[in-house]
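Dear colleagues,

As part of the handover before I leave the project, I'm documenting each prediction I ran so the next person doesn't have to rerun anything. This entry is a single chain, and its sequence is reproduced below.
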Amino acid sequence: MPRARHRRALFAVRTFTGALACALLLAAAAGQASPLTQSARLPGSCQTQQQFDARATVAHVYDGDTVRLHDGTRLRLIGLDTPEFHYRDPDRGAEPFAREAGDALARLLSAHDHEVGLVYDRERQDRYRRTLAHLFTPDGKSITALLLVQGLATGLTIPPNDWNVDCYRDAEREAALRRLNIWSLPEHRLFKAGDLPRDAEGFRRVEGRVVRLGESPRATWINLEGNVALRIDHADMHHFPDLEVRTLVDKQVRARGHVYNYRGQPRIRIRHSADLEIVER
């Protein structure tokens, strides 16, 4: 069996043995929460879901945020992003806590006989033709929030699919404050804008003072001290209904998202108001 296919097979829904036991021991030794999601305490903003758009059975877990349903549907959970396994480039290896996130999701599903409730958002498919849905346990607990609150994922809001965003952000915030799992990693700390490495890549959180604003044909630019730029596309601006961009100069803001680099300048595209906070007004 090719290496990539073999690694995928490891994450079929299953009974947990050595890998999970090892993860539990390591988590306990580090003083972190173990990846057992069904008993996690959720924030008050995460309400029990009483009704579902559909019910389904999960047949296979690819990783912490993607599953295959019994009817063959490949489904991407809305609201979170878990560490990657890099199946297409196995030489890169799995990202930290990728295995723990996959194990936690599979264990949670197993505890409920692999049955889930689905709530759809405004988009039913992503660009990879995966079905998009918010997943819940049969008794109405958000599976996304359960993974987030234990620090096994970062929140991900891709407009227009922003239903339940307050729950997800609050769950992530609790895990970050407690430095659980992925939030114990150096790259997931809150960076001062001037301390963000020029070659930073991937998810980062950054805080800094706004020194100037800019406009381009496609985007509004919020430039922070330390030569870090936040980009809001004009097409996304309606997802920031309370933001008065022109008043941001000299204010302290906090942003989160995936960093890319342009001519030595770290940039973050901000697509939703959940990813931008004014710290000092």
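The chain has two domains: 3-184, 189-280. The first strand starts at residue 54 and ends at 63.

All the best with the project,
I.
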